[in-house]
Amino acid sequence: MSQMTAEAMKDDLAWLPKGRQLMKGNHAVCAGAIRAGCTAYFGYPITPQNEAIEYMSGALLDVPNGIFLQGESEVASINMVMGAAAAGRRVMTSSSSPGISLKQEGISYIAMMELPMLVMNVVRCGPGLGNIAPHQGDYFQAVKGGGHGDYRLITLAPASVHEMAEHAHLGFELACKWRNPAMILTDGVIGQMMEPVDLDAIPVVDWKKPDWAMGVNRTGRKPNLVTSIWLDPEDMAQKHLEIIDKYERLKAAEVRFEEYMCDDAEVLCVAYGSVSRAVMGTVRKLREEGMKIGLLRPITLWPYPYATLRELAKKVKSVVTYEMSWGQMIEDVALATRLNPVPLHFVPRHGGLTFNPNDVETPLRAIYANPQNSDTLWEIS
Amino acid sequence: MLHEMIFAGFGGQGILTMGQIVSYGAVDNNLETSWIPSYGPESRGGTSNCTVMISDERIASPMTAAPSAIIVMNEPSFTKFVPKLKPGGVCVANRDLVTSDTDRDDVEIIWVEANLEAKALGNLMTAGNIALGALNERVGFVADKAIEDGLGHVFSGKKAKLIPLNMQAYQLGKDLARKG
């Protein structure tokens, strides 16, 4: 990284992360981002994502035109991100739950300014200071709009360290294609874990400043305007309609998910991120016993795979949602299945406790035996 | 093939590094692997531990409630993890720091005087690799070459001089397990 040998300096691309490596998730996301053309990072330390800021502080020294700056706070950092995004950089920040809360005002501004940027939230257990254990309690904040106003965040939920790198690239591609902020929503399991990453599989992007970006206007071109203030309600309404239309097109084009053994499933599990790993292991195990169980893993949490879930739910006797929260994504599962009611089950883990395979398997066996299993049955209330 | 392993001891015994040696070695030898540490309050006092998975196919859960093999380097780790071991599982326990015993007869406990043996080798820090050798001798989760590869990642640059001693410790662990 920063301590390059004289020989490495001769290689123009020595700074490019490459090869098949064993990496922490928090490092992989940064390596993927740099391959995707990220040249700027602004952030403020918080556990459990400090490996990200650590990695960027070294790696960006060697990236051509790289900028790394530790802001004096999360608020300062997100506003630096806003500036770099307005100037046309592929720019990234990362934090964990309380720090992400502090960034919400800036994220709302960035969404209205239609600026692309990537933010990673390595979620810890809240509310409040909570603890630093893995959790999924920031789902609503990410997918329903954590800051003020009507905006949406493109939200990606990696389930492996390799996907952390992959989603850094995907996040930038989607953010830039749609001119909208994107978030990687993950937790300490994925962030702190080490797994093999095939960095060569992550596309290398030579990012060029887009036409709409800010900068010194030497060519006499029509001035660019990037703003979040529209004082005249008529003008603002027009802008709103444009963004609403953009979101509708985005929803139609960018939904991503993984179906695992869903074809003949009688019970459908729904889980994202680290939780989906424990569920997948259990599905695999129970399939060997002949139990017909499948898993739907949303990869984009916004836009959410409502249509796929609706169709899958028509064919099953019950749907089980596993979440490390008090019950957030299950509301989207309920929305998806509202027209063809099927028993919904909710299996949570609280306080920062993670799912061990047993925590998945025991309720799943009960639900498989009885689709109306009262211990886990969930209804809108 | 899936090996679900937990390595545990107290902070400073090189437990997390031990797990990384295995995972790095697995990657170099085209196996799937995951390494996850306990972090936060759980890792303060008592036990420091990591879970290491080795497989030849995609690894589902990186965590387990019932490991197939464990290394426990101190007393709290022994009392915490031996009850969780899968029936038929293997435990390498550091006799120098574990005084209690277990009444489970459905698991195999391999007692190794890891601290004494490591001191005899001239470096207490090699105790972990003695235990690693003992476990791999019985379980065979990776080839010996993978351990050497893994040591190369963990001890790079100036620390590379520690590799031969640690390989020696690893081989000693294998010998001890073979002799029972």
Walk me through what this model shows:
The complex is a heterodimer of chains A (381) and B (180). With 381 residues, chain A is of the alpha/beta class. Chain A has 2 domains: 8-201, Thiamin diphosphate (ThDP)-binding fold, Pyr/PP domains (Rossmann fold), CATH 3.40.50.970; 257-369, Rossmann fold (3-Layer(aba) Sandwich), CATH 3.40.50.920. Chain A has helices at 6-10, 25-35, 50-62, 74-86, 97-112, 139-143, 161-178, 188-192, 233-253, 273-288, 306-314, 329-336, 357-369, and strands at 20-24, 38-43, 67-70, 90-95, 118-123, 154-156, 182-187, 194-198, 257-260, 267-270, 293-298, 300-302, 318-323, 344-348. In chain A, the strands form 3 sheets. Chain A has a 7-stranded mixed beta sheet, with helices on both faces. Chain A has a 5-stranded mixed beta sheet with strand order 9-11-10-13-14, sandwiched between helices. In chain A, strands 1-8 form a two-stranded antiparallel sheet. In chain A, strand 2 (38-43), helix 3 and strand 3 (67-70) form a beta-alpha-beta unit. Chain A starts with 5 loop residues before the first helix and ends in a 12-residue tail after the last helix. In chain A, 52% of the residues are buried. Chain B is of the alpha/beta class and 180 residues long. Chain B has a single domain (2-179), classed as Pyruvate-ferredoxin oxidoreductase, PFOR, domain III (Pyruvate-ferredoxin Oxidoreductase, domain 3). Helix content of chain B is 39%, strand content 20%. Chain B has helices at residues 15-28, 75-81, 114-121, 127-139, 144-154, 163-179; strands at residues 2-9, 32-37, 48-55, 69-72, 90-94, 108-112. In chain B, strand 4, helix 2 (75-81) and strand 5 (90-94) form a beta-alpha-beta unit. Chain B is globular, with a radius of gyration of 15 Å. The two termini of chain B are 25 Å apart. At the A-B interface, strand 1, helix 8, strand 8, helix 10 and helix 13 of A face helix 1 and strand 2 of B.
